[in-house]
Amino acid sequence: MPEITTEQTNQLELIQTLNYNNAAVKQAVTFIQNDAFKHRLFIQQYGRLMINGYSESDVVSRAITAVQESTEALAVITTTAAAE
Predict the structure, then answer these.
(1) CA 45, CA 51: separation in Å to the nearest integer?
(2) φ/ψ (deg, to 5) at 3
(3) Distance CA 33, CA 29 (A)
(4) pLDDT at 37
(5) Which InterPro entries has this protein been placed in (predicted)?
(6) Is residue 24 packed enough to be buried (19+ CB in 10 Å), middle (13-18) or exposed (0-12)?
(7) What is the mean pLDDT of each run of 10 residues along the chain (84 residues)?
(8) pTM to 2 decimals?
(9) How far apart are CA 84 and CA 63, in angstroms?
(10) Per-residue model confidence (pLDDT) at position 11
């Protein structure tokens, strides 16, 4: 039996994190695009929303917000790194 790859492990983590909600997974996958850094960033942003009591109870809405916040954070990181 072949071993599970890092990419597959990330995909399983994403599916589990998003409570097996396919619509939410689709939102996240569109952003992540099999990029390990974007994956970690999204997971952290989504977790932060959960810890900070984000008022939206819908998994898809939280995923969309996590994508938006991840995109903003990535823009800041990219811009700052390019300026140095």
Answers:
(1) 10
(2) -75, 155
(3) 6
(4) 96
(5) Phage_P22_Orf80 (IPR022544)
(6) buried
(7) 92 96 96 96 93 76 95 90 69
(8) 0.86
(9) 31
(10) 96
pLDDT at 54: 67
Name the DSSP class of 53: T
User: Could you give the CA distance from residue 31 to residue 47 in angstroms, rounded to a whole number?
Assistant: 16
Q: What number of residues does the chain have?
A: 84
Owner of token pair 């810890």: 51
Q: At what angle do helices 6-17 and 36-51 cross, to 10 degrees?
A: 20
Q: Which of 68, 55, 73, 56 is nearest to 28 (CA)?
A: 68
Q: Which amino acid is at 12?
A: L
